[in-house]
User: Fold this.
Amino acid sequence: MPVRSAGLLLYRQASDNGRGVPGGLQVWIAHMGGPFWARKDSGAWSIPKGEYLEGEDPLVAALREFAEEMGSPAPDADYRILGEFRQPSRKIITAFAANVDFQPETITSNTFPLEWPKGSGRIQDFPEIDDARWFPEQEARLKLVKGQLPILDALADHVRAAQAEGR
Assistant:
């Protein structure tokens, strides 16, 4: 049975601020923590997500994982399922989206233990997420791990359909 994860992709529609920040669709994504990702940027960001157990409600799991990784609860919003997305690792991510402006004062992620440097016998704690912020859709396409680009595609389709319906 494949490992299952659930995550939230927050989005907002921004207007051009006249100071070089483009308008349009923006998404909230997070830079993965730990030494493997420390010096990487392109392809090193993810939607906030985490694993859940069989029988657990994926939205409940996504809300829990968001809070653990951001250090604050997910915003109260109307979350819509975007679908299930198989990753190259064979993990399946159930993704939910909401149109909401999230502005936390700080990002304080939970941590994980890792022997570092490898083979040293020294266990260190690293944050699961070491940064998170809003990015315009096109920039997010460069930052997200490749396996999550279909999630962003599904969001863009959802937003276009909502705009066409006048929502």
Remarks:
- The longest strand covers residues 4-14.
- Residues 4-164 form a domain with the Nucleoside Triphosphate Pyrophosphohydrolase fold (CATH 3.90.79.10).
- Residues 58 and 99 are 19 Å apart (CA to CA).
- DSSP finds three helices and nine strands in the chain.
